[in-house]
Amino acid sequence: MAAGCKSENSQYKKMVEFGQKYTDAWNSKQPEKMASFYAEDGMLTVNNGIPAMGRKQLAETAKSYMEAFPDMELTMDSLTVENETYRYYWTFKGTNTGPGGTGNKVNFSGFEEWTMNKQGLIQKSVGTYDAQDYNRQLEK
């Protein structure tokens, strides 16, 4: 039993490191870096929107945020695990000064639920944040 706990703790520590590296990839301003944390056929859905499927679309999704918020800063708030699903909690801050931007600052939080594949990459991520709050900050 204790060995199982130690193994689970080791896996959790690995996933916390993974989450921090994922955060760093977002902050790198290199969309392909973020996409590399996903399986080749990985998927990201945000707020029940149209899923980004595969690394090319994932990179395009990341690029849209990176361009809209050139000074964006993502922080990892925490990581939890339940039934082999990881929940990555984050906070996003930035100023919308990209093409067509409002010039407004945003500061909002959310989370992604990750299902990992056998290679240790994200197979499926379901992201959620308060879109009303985000839009309100953009429109100020």
Automatic annotation (TrEMBL):
This is Nuclear transport factor 2 family protein. InterPro entries: Cyclase_SnoaL-like, NTF2-like_dom_sf. Pfam families: SnoaL. GO terms for biological process: polyketide metabolic process.
